[in-house]
Each structure stands twice: as structure tokens, then as C-alpha cells.
Amino acid sequence: MIYRIGKRKKLNADINVVPYIDVMLVLLIIFMVLSPLLIQGIEVNLPKTDTTKMSVSSEPLVISIDRRGEYFINLGEEQLPISLMELKNKAKIIYQANPDIEIVFKSDANVPFDYVAKGMAGIQSLGIQKIGIITSGYDSEL
Fold it and tell me: Which long-range contacts (CB under 8 A, 24 or more apart) does 74-83 make?
């Protein structure tokens, strides 16, 4: 038997990170596909405008107004019908719990703007500044 003295093979203790990068890329793609689907609400016929996409840092509170002018507050998967006074009270409670929340209105195109304006004014009277309107885009013919 021959023994080699002084020449020992060093152990390689590196971690192969390529599979982890692959998994992270797949997760990134999944979240990129699912993120536009997170805005919830009842089905309304949105007015068409020439707008840009809004940047949402967290999930906004969506308030929907259907074609009959009824308000709905969207909490998770359910849409709860609500009056304008109840809307102000619940929005105040939600705003106190999370002051960085964004509130967006999703209104049917056939609803008079009076309903949207009353809802937005009620929310603004609470001191909430991050308010928006969800619309659908159209092809501009310029």
C-alpha cells in the first residue's frame, strides 16, 4: 500500500444556487401574472378613458358603485352592500388601522357622476388623501 503524505484533497463546500434562482424566477413570473387579478369588485361597465396604469404598493380598498347607484365595499373576496354613511364609518376605521391605504372607486359607466363625487367627498372629509378612480382604457384615434 502506498500512502501519500502531505497531498490531501480539499473538500469543496460550495452551494449550487442555480436551482434556487430558477425557483425564484418562476415565483416572480407567477406573482407578475397574478398581481393584476388582485383588484376585486363587483362587475361594472367601466367608463373608457385614456389613462396610464396606476402604481399600487399594497392592495387598495375598492369601493364599487353599480348601475343603480348602490355602493359596495370589497373586503377580501366578498362585496358588501353599504350605504354612504356606513361607507364613511367603515373607511374611517380602516384608515385608522392603516393610514397608508389607497382607496379606489370602481363605478359603472352609466352611473351619474353625482354618486362617485358624493362617495369621494365623504372619503376625503375623513382626511384620506390617496383616492383614485378605476377606468378601462380605449384605443385613441388621434
Answer: 74/40, 74/41, 74/42, 76/40, 77/40, 79/40, 79/41, 79/42
